[in-house]
Design goal:
mainly alpha; Rossmann fold; four-stranded parallel sheet; 4 strands
Amino acid sequence: MSRRVLDHLHLNAPLAVAVLTRFIRDAVETSGTTGVVVGLSGGIDSSLAAALAARALGPERVHGFLLPYRTSSADSEADARRVAAHLALPHRKIDISPMIDAYFAIETDADPARRGNKMARERMTILFDQAKKLGALVLGTSNKTEILLGYSTVFGDNASSLNPLGDLYKHQVWQLARHLELPAEVVAKRPSADLWPGQTDEGDLGFDYATADEVLWQLFDEGLTPDEVVERGYDRAVVERIVTFERQFRFKRRLMLIARLSGSAVNLDQEIPRD
């Protein structure tokens, strides 16, 4: 990552943690709920979200769920348990294999992308059901880089009640994870949704997170055009791929589209103040 971009992405870590923990605490207090539930994948994003919630609420109010499929990596489960132990979180494992296999016994022609989306949505339905059971909110774990690239599943991993990571680029997620001293194994591992053996985020995307963060920051924070980013020395094909993802999957980060018939359409007009 270039020094110029790195300097801009570097956070005041103690201040960022203070803001994000206050955000979580306020969301829980104003909703009248008891805490949060979070899916622990063993990856850095869910680990950081859980760590922030534990600092905000106390670990006893952060309920971790391990939701593996039968082909999920044993290392991922081990890392999830390592994080739960490190943070002293109550946690529970629920195997999603019976639900997934029952559906794909009928839909036998499903490709890996459909199967992965179904797994992501199944996990989220379990988290929302457990949140209902526990009187809690569902904690989101998608970071800004993933959201801008559309690297998420609608009503799957991008569905949550609150998300403390949504304005953090991946580089900043790594920075805060190191600042909070999360297990080194989790911080160092290659990001993966663990949808099938050997799957990695960067392999799916076709570029690494460092490049994505640099390009996205220049497009969104500096307001450069794609051509101006290329003129700074970035590969045109990679920049164009990133821009295509952002435009193609923009719908994933919008609320439902509602046709307007009245003067007070939900999500289209000013909402009643919450506080």
